[in-house]
Amino acid sequence: MESIKNKIVYYVATSLDGYICGEDEDISGFVAEGDGVQKYISDLNDYKTVIMGRKTYEFGYKFGLKPGGAPYPHMNHHIFSDSLHFDDQENNVHINKLELNQIDSIKAKSPTDVYLCGGGVFAGWLLDNERIDILKLKINPFLLGTGTKLFGSSKKSVQLELLGSETFDGGLLINTYKIKY
């Protein structure tokens, strides 16, 4: 019998052409309200651990996040950066070196699945190193044409198994895939 273990879940909004934001971090075309957005917000309550790269963390500054603050107060935050430093940070905010053993340790110690919060470059590195288990895409009904790609510059080829698909107002789809390395 296979043991049950936590999964790393990349739960992210994307355009139909695979971008998580446009040029200059533009997210204005993404569906910002409705039942699909409410589902995403509700789903975040299921996670107690979040991982992200420095750029994703700093993106939160545009929306009022203070340096060292926790964007998701109910989660333990692990920000992967070799350069980020805070003089003062909340107890649930941790800076980690970009090392696979750190990822594996966080996953093993988390009381829930681990939420991978955005970041094409970080997600691409995790994909290249086969650390993402579930891909949960909020597929928005528009094309960006340019910007930050879903998996940055990763060229890794993998098969996906569709686990579920939900349709929401505004044309938003949430598709859940198992990544098959």
From TrEMBL:
* Domain Bacterial bifunctional deaminase-reductase C-terminal, chain residue ranges per copy: 7-173
| One Pfam family per UniProt | RibD_C
Which top-rank group of organisms is this from? Answer: Bacteria
Query: Gene3D superfamilies in the record, alphabetically?
Result: Dihydrofolate Reductase, subunit A
Cited InterPro entries: DHFR-like_dom_sf (IPR024072), RibDG_C (IPR002734), Riboflavin_Biosynth_HTPR (IPR050765)
Q: What name does the UniProt record give this protein?
A: Dihydrofolate reductase family protein
